[in-house]
Design brief:
This protein is an alpha+beta fold and 286 residues long. Helix content is 32%, strand content 28%. It has 2 domains: 217 residues, 3-Layer(bab) Sandwich (Hsp33 domain); 52 residues, CBS domain Like.
């Protein structure tokens, strides 16, 4: 049985809700086709835990996307999680670059969280103003979402985990209690997530508090790529470009950068693609 799960919980005597996430199998699968260094592994793992923690709070069918776009060491990081806890993500470094810590890695980078319910996507900007993704997200929740939150994230190549604590809007909490919970959440380290990090971990961490634990929900790695989506990309590329690529290599091979799935298109496929849905002028898009 996979231990990858998210467990929502609430404090009986404090206006605070929370969730604990623990990923191992799905997290290792996400890294399978990549060769990330330790810092990028940690940053991607933090992003995976954070995105899943946000997604578990969705009350509707939708997708949360955390995206960091940089011009220095980190070129791009994308993490997506659906409301039913299907997660995928990847990151790429700028050519020939390296970084020694999160601040250097994300220097001059832009970070955004998009909530897409299939109707009208909403994007919020996350200022990378702390020394970590968790600090930046705490500021984001406080300023943009106006929900004071504590975010603790841990990751290495084996586990990605974390905890989100949020004040219940409209209710007052004693500042000392809030600080105490923050302190406790910040004590979480990777070792806590080795093995079955579940209800016991929540109970151990908040042993002084009365915590109501809700049903655990499974978290899985699942890519959302499909033949149809890749075909859409080729159509956007245009017939001329597609045929040029075909002439060069005999076939067009498209590898999904999230899950590593290979899809090949030969001349018959390309002809079918552009015969089925020829859009006048689509080749001339700049
Ligand atoms: Zn894929």
């Amino acid at each position: 049985m996979s231990a990858d799960s998210v467990i929502p919980f609430a404090f009986e005597s404090l206006p605070v809700r929370g969730a604990l996430i623990h990923m191992s199998r799905s997290w290792r699968r996400m890294q399978r086709d990549h060769d990330y260094d330790a810092l990028l592994t940690e940053t991607l793992g933090h992003s995976a835990a954070a995105t899943a923690l946000i997604a578990q709070s969705l009350k509707f069918d939708g997708v949360i996307t955390l995206q960091i776009q940089g011009s220095g060491s980190l070129k791009m990081l994308v993490m997506q999680c659906t409301n039913d806890m299907q997660l995928r993500g990847m990151a790429t470094m700028g050519e020939g670059t390296s970084a020694s810590d999160f601040v250097e890695l994300t220097a001059a980078a832009h970070c955004a969280i998009t909530v897409d319910n299939g109707d009208r996507p909403y994007q919020g900007i996350v200022e990378i103003d702390g020394e970590s993704l968790s600090t930046s997200l705490e500021h984001y929740f406080e300023r943009s979402v106006q929900v004071p939150s504590h975010v603790a994230l841990v990751a290495n190549e084996d586990v990605a985990g974390g905890m989100l604590l949020q004040q219940v809007p409209g209710q007052n909490i004693d500042e000392d209690d809030w600080t105490r919970l923050h302190f406790l959440a910040k004590t979480l380290v990777s070792k806590d997530f080795e093995g079955e990090a579940g209800i016991e971990l929540i109970r151990k961490l908040f042993s002084e508090d009365d915590v109501r634990v809700h049903k655990a929900r499974a978290v899985d790695f699942r890519c959302r790529c499909s033949d149809r989506k890749v075909e859409e990309v080729l159509k956007m590329l245009g017939e001329k470009e597609s045929r040029a690529a075909l002439d060069e290599r005999g076939e067009i091979e498209v590898i999904c950068e999230y899950c590593g799935e290979k899809r090949s298109f030969d001349s018959v496929d390309v002809s079918r693609l552009f015969a089925a849905n020829s859009v006048p002028g689509s080749d001339s898009v700049q």
